[in-house]
Amino acid sequence: MNFKNIGSNKFLKTHFSLLAVLFVLIVILTITCPNFGKVANFAIIVRQLSLNVLVAMGMTVVLIGGGIDLSVGGVFAAAGIIAGLLMTKLGIPIWLLFVIAMAVGSIFGLANGVLASFTNIPPFIITLGMSYVASGTAYVFGEGRSVSVIIKPFNNLGNGNVGIIPIPVFFMVTIAVILGVILSKTRLGRGIYATGSNVTAALYSGINIRKTRLFVYAVCGMLGAISATLNTAKVFVAQPDAGAGSEIDAIAAVVIGGTSFEGGKGTIFGTILGTLLITVIGNGMNQLGITYFWQKIVKGIIIVLAVLVDERMNVREKRRAMNAGK
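RESULT FIELD:
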């Protein structure tokens, strides 16, 4: 199985296309929305982008590995509530808070991975069920109420800057580099691509399918928890419904960025571009006064169109492969 072309020709075209669309969109919104082009608004976009990318990168790893995770919204809510309670009730050190939050997210992710690895239940059903478990956990721990978290050192993580760079950007860049290296330079990364491309072939190649699936789902849960913790710091409150719809935004961003629903294809850089596009669209619709209900319709249409494009590209690649084999 050849991994040399991962992130090359097809993905370069996708990346350049996304950059072109982003440029045109930003120009249009800057002209039509007086406040869109302001520095303050771009700072809002970058800060929100960082949180969205964390969730989307987790979804990317899962989709490349041939799975899907619909539980990220529930995990986001559960981790956020638990982080808020730990800060307000126990006042634990911030570093320990992140360790616990990542552990919480990883536990939910590992539960998904175990069920996906040791049963024949489709990942769609497994993670859909887990989304209810995680969401219910958020309501149980928070007793159905929001948790106010006004602790300056903690809130500074979500709202502070290092120079002109928002702190969440450092989390995003660090994790993006780590995942990029894992996916492109390590045996584990090759195993993830192989598992998503062809499970049977990966198995005969000596790849441990179960360990690979456990890893990708654990990473997805962990990144959702990190994003939730930073979001709690940013908005000064943890809400039991905070992650509602985040899985939809993540899937939209990931597929737009070139990751295939069929597995085995995708890049972290593409996901960042796809997330930026979704974030800019959301911000632009807010600037234009478009209601949340219409925004959901637009995002749904974007997902369907992205999947249709992905399907057509996969069909073309299969035809080329068949013709090349004749």
